[in-house]
Design brief:
Helix content is 35%, strand content 29%. It has 158 residues and is of the alpha+beta class. It has a single domain, classed as Alpha-D-Glucose-1,6-Bisphosphate, Chain A, domain 4 (2-Layer Sandwich), CATH 3.30.530.20. A six-stranded antiparallel β-sheet has the order 1-2-6-5-4-3. Strand 1 and strand 2 form a beta hairpin. Helix 3 crosses helix 4.
Amino acid sequence: MIYIAYALIGLLGAILVALIYVRVAPTKPSHWHEVEVPLMAPGAYPSAGGHLIQRVVQGDGVQMMAQLDQIICATARTSVVAGTVEDNKTTYMTRTKICGFPDFTTVRLMTVPDSDDCMLQVYGRLRFGQSDLGVNRKRIDGWMAQLDAMGGAATPTP
């Protein structure tokens, strides 16, 4: 019986160490900000560890990006890691409420070759683990719904 108690204490200790590490692990901004996702057709591209959406921007892309920046920065436990709206590329970190797991989202405004249009790319991904359980998709969809409600100038994802 004592071995079971030791095993449980060891397991709880390992979980506690992992949770502390998730909160204090250093973040290298360039690793998350310098990611380059190729320009693709407008749409949603889910993956096990994240979510990518691309939308065609109609009108002033910088103004629309500024609106989206305000929405993202108003999200609880979210901060800018690198970049600015003026750079047409900003990376944010959002931590989960209970465990503090960090997710990174890069918002980028790109010019579409041979066109007057711009493309908005929002790429959210996790730092730790294999699956985000749809958290990034839910967060990004919420941001985009708020942008649409503000009259954001991006064509909704099909």
